[in-house]
Amino acid sequence: MQHELSGLRDNIISEIKNASSLAELEVARVSALGKKGKLTELMKELSKIGDEERRNIGSELNNFKKEIITLIEIRKRQFESAALNAKLEKESIDVTLPSRADSMGSIHPVSQVIEEMITIFCDMGFVIASGPEIEEDFYNFTALNIPPEHPARQMHDTFYLGEGQKSDKKLLRTHTSPVQVRTMIAGHPPFRIIAPGRTYRKDYDITHTPMFHQIEGLVIDEKTHLGHLKGCLADFVKAFFEVQDLPLRFRPSYFPFTEPSAEMDIGCSRNAGQLKLGGGEDWMEILGCGMVNPKVLEASGVNSDRYQGFAFGLGVERAAMLKYGIPDLRAFFDSDIRWLRHYGFGSLDIPSLLSGLSR
Ligand code: PHE
């Protein structure tokens, strides 16, 4: 057996040394140490020999086994580092290649236009106010001189929430005008606020969506008059549309919360479906406005003998459509990424409006 062992030793070691790849090394390992490997078989023979001899040969076999395992491990590392070196040798990294572009989000036209409007009005000295979208009847209607059963309520197609009498039900505000009332109740005149925000009406067609945005404006002081209203809104639309000689007209209208009331139109022309601002023979309505009805002042705790002023409400989507040539209102809220890539704005486009304000 001693003799057998030394022959086997040479044989196994040379197999390991001659292996020229990881795969061949694995073959050599299995042929020596596998279940039916040469060394394994030899170990099985141990049971057949005498005690004395078994002790000697047994320990020799064990040492040999350890030796082989170490040898295999060393060869394995050699192959692995050679493979790694070859890979490094072969692959090179071109550090001058441009990196993959990050896909950037863009700013929705509604957000962009609200930012632009805020910039213009804040430049004029307005501050921003806000109110809840889930509103009470009192602020949305009653305090604005629209008592229960008033026909103007029908015009608003209101979403009511929950059960109960209409008069104490919560509702989704149908306009931003309740912020006028909330602001006046909470503070003291003078007021000069704008209130941008979401508004809701049961309506859906090419020019209406159930949710849309408005910007409300309110100016209250002791001597604020119709001339201020006109000058303020004329300055605003010229800055916003960036057209200096934009034709304007105020058309008499009716809102329960203003007296007198008007709608403001801007001049435009339509050519083969293309809308162009300024000049031309057509008019486009862009906002409602008027002198705040003294009844609204009184309902809001403001002394109407001493204070007066004007208010206006402007549709954000409509203004965005006009300024940026967006044809369909409904697409604003479809969340179609292709639409947003086309009509959206980069973060650095947030308005300086330098050209529009010409300052
Ligand atoms: N709240 C009115 C509307 O939604 C607009 C408006 C606001 C009119 C303020 C006059 C004064 O139609």
Overall number of strands? 11
Q: What is the CATH architecture term of the largest domain?
A: 2-Layer Sandwich
Number of domains: 2
The termini sit apart by 105 Å
> Biggest sheet, open or closed, and with what strands and sense?
8 strands, mixed
Mean pLDDT: 89
CATH superfamily of the largest domain: Bira Bifunctional Protein, Domain 2
Percent of residues in helices? 40-55%
CATH-derived topology of the largest domain = BirA Bifunctional Protein, domain 2
Gyration radius, rounded: 42 Å
Q: Which CATH class of the largest domain?
A: Alpha Beta
Helix tally? 13
Task: Write a structural description.
With 359 residues, the protein is of the alpha+beta class. It has two domains: 2-86; 109-333, BirA Bifunctional Protein, domain 2 (2-Layer Sandwich). Helices cover 42% and strands 21% of the residues. It has helices spanning 2-18, 22-33, 38-45, 51-90, 109-123, 137-140, 152-155, 178-186, 226-241, 294-299, 316-324, 337-343, 354-357, and strands at residues 127-128, 134-136, 160-161, 170-172, 191-200, 211-221, 248-255, 258-271, 274-277, 282-292, 308-315. Strands 1, 5, 6, 7, 8, 9, 10 and 11 form an eight-stranded mixed sheet that branches. It has a three-stranded antiparallel sheet with strand order 2-4-3. Helix 5 (109-123) packs across helix 11 (316-324). The radius of gyration is 42 Å and the shape is elongated. Mean pLDDT is 89; it is low at 353-359. Phenylalanine (PHE) binds at residues 175, 177, 255, 258, 288-290, 311-313.
